Amino acid sequence: MYDDKRTIQDNGLLTPKQQTYRPGLISMKLGNTANKPDAGHINIDQDKALADYRYEQQLALGQQQFQQSQQQSAAQFQQQQANAGGSVICTELKRLGIMSQELYEQAHLGRPVNQCVLNGYHLWAVPYVESMRNWSLPRLIAKPLALAWAYHRAHKLAPDQYPKESLLGLSVHVIGGTICWTIGLFIPVKVNWQSLYTGRNSGYPWPTQ
């Protein structure tokens, strides 16, 4: 407020202005601020716990997505194998990069396979693939025979792309098919060939060297 101390002179005018500014007091009732943080205060322990929690959540989410991706890949692979008639030796060679994807598809996908022949084939081919993963000699033996057989099958199914017949592949197809049919006929055991890619061998992919 202002305290005006001027008086009226004889001429009717006020004396010169003399003012003194006296600001009024402002009363503010504040609550208990003893436990309130100051402006800009950071709780380091709480922030660290929150950061650790978010990291663990992201890690768990990443692991879950990875597992889902692995399951989807395994399901897709099994479906491809089902369409391919349960091939295992050529599949292993394809995985090793010895047989191309194109040749593999031309030789396998969509071809009908007699169940008796397939059972006899899996009876010896499944353990043979397991040996291919541990030693190089079985891979060296399987490479020329399987590639020749694949070229023979590709020639039958896509002669425009594979115009040259493979006599070795024809021999493997006839002799090998007869042997597998005989084994499946006298030993009617259905081998779970998918165990090569699931179950106890869940550590796929295996070393290629």
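^ that was protein a. below is b, sequence first then the tokens
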Amino acid sequence: MNFDDHDTGESVADLSVAIGRLRGDRQLLCELIEFFEDDAPLLLATAHDRFVAKDFAALERSVHSLKGLAATFEAESAVASARAIEEAAREQQSEALPALLVTLTEKFEQLGSFLSRYRQNQCFESP
């Protein structure tokens, strides 16, 4: 299952590849989506807080974790956005970070919406 952003035509995630990597285990994918839904908002908030505090090392770590979450779902644009922040934080390019953080937040909101729809339609709890 692949989802494109209607505004940009850009792929948000490719769950068919993710499921293949999980050897077809859709239940595990559903569990990973729940993990994403729990952790992504906290990691995003931490990234924003670390930027405000000018703690570039902690910002880089938070965004690295977000990058890993996005990679789980083959969300290449979210991964690329996180990678750009990692690099900017590593080089302490504070002037570039606000716009990059806005983009990262947008990418993760798109991914979160997509994963939530998938979970609602495809994930069923066992009796």
